[in-house]
From TrEMBL:
This is Flavin-containing monooxygenase. Belongs to the FMO family. It comes from Aristolochia fimbriata. Keywords: FAD, Flavoprotein, Monooxygenase, NADP, Oxidoreductase. The chain holds residues 1 to 450 of 560 of the full protein. The keyword Oxidoreductase applies.
Amino acid sequence: MAQSCKVAVIGAGVAGLVAARELIREGHHVVIFEKGDRIGGTWIYDPRIENDPLGLNPDREIVHSSLYRSLRTNLPRRIMGFSDYPFKVRDEGGDSREFPGHEEVLSYLERFARDFELTDLTRFKTEVTCVRMGTRKDEWLVESRRRKACSGLEPGSEVEMEIFQAVVVCNGHFVEPRIAAIPGIGKWPGKQIHSHNYRMPEPFKDQIVVVIGSGPSAFDISRDIAKVAKEVHLASRSPDIEVGKVHGLDNVWQHLMIESVNEDGSVIFLNGTSTFADTILHCTGYKYHFPFMEIDKIVTVEDNRVGPLYKHVFPPSLAPWLSFIGLPSKVIPFLSAELQAKWLGQILADKVTLPTEEDMLASVNEYYSDMEEMGKPKHHTHVLYPFELQSEYKNWLRAQVGLPPLEQWIWETYVATLKRLISLDDGFREKEDFNHDLQTTLDTALCNCE
Ligand code: FAD
């Protein structure tokens, strides 16, 4: 195996940037392909919305980012940064809050790219349109085309083809909406939109809005809309959710999932309540999507399972020449991507060895059987929740690259934040007791290190 490889990284978001940095550290030659005109991926706020608000039309012009205008991070900044490049408050000002607004994250990523000289390696406005294997497993043909500034391929732009030894897929997975199936929706007269296309509350002024979901987006967006809407009704699949008026908010109600909707505009919930609504907003997550991959039979996406993938990164039969960084969800994303990237870099540099193809496949199959035994649905394959799954995974990756387990204070901070998110604690980002607890966790950890 080569010590130093020529590697194509697709995407200049968190995953692509940290992958490039780790690959360079291991002496590889990297080209980053980025269809947008700047680095940052998801963290580049784009006020445009797609022409299909549900994001289902495969021919729609895609807007990459799903950020809404008011978005603040849902993890505290102290656990969001890369391990050796903390997400600190900037000397020159900026947003110093523990849960800063999205602009602050973008600025952090721009500094990261600048400091590790990643910008010069990036081919901006260059969309990868096809990736396929050549005559050997370490020969990959990457086709790309130039794009206009913020939309569409440049008409008449030439297809460029280049050969790489390895390809790292980092194209993001918050772009292709999943929506809830609702009995009667075909005849329901209201509007529907997916959170991918939610930007600001003003269009919902005086409306009755039903928000489906119970993740961070449903939480934030329902509160954002409640400032201008007449009523907001949250519908959740979780059977243990507390239904009724949401404490502290005058116009927000929590229900169980929608049972059905009707031609007269009514929405019936499984807990027996109902309302007439103007809009249903689906905060129901996203699908993995790799439109440029020509390896259909080797890696498939079935019910949101990308597989088979050894440890969520390598298709066993193509490892290590094809890899996916950043797929796990319900994790601390920056740290996950960084560890996966370190592992990849060291494998390509021949410092760390992968098991045989058969053993990797056996490990994937064992993982699937364990999921089945635990009654987990296929679409949760890359969901590393409860958090013990994530800590086990991250510590496993750390061991592969010769690092000790992650420090305890990181997990304590993460779990404390999750608890607040899950308990739907309004305004948790500002609560003094919470910020005090986070500080105590960190202080204790630092004290124990001395
Ligand atoms: P992306 O950031 O999506 O980057 C993918 C890049 O690939 C993009 O730049 C895209 O233009 C490019 N690309 C795609 N296809 C091609 C192609 N064919 N050719 C060339 N380039 C291509 N994480 C946190 O840590 N904290 C938070 O508070 C947080 N809040 C979030 C809130 C929302 C609403 C969402 C959607 C996500 C949030 N996340 C949060 C998760 C966030 O997505 C990750 O932090 C991280 O940004 C994911 O990075 P990525 O590189 O995997 O994908």
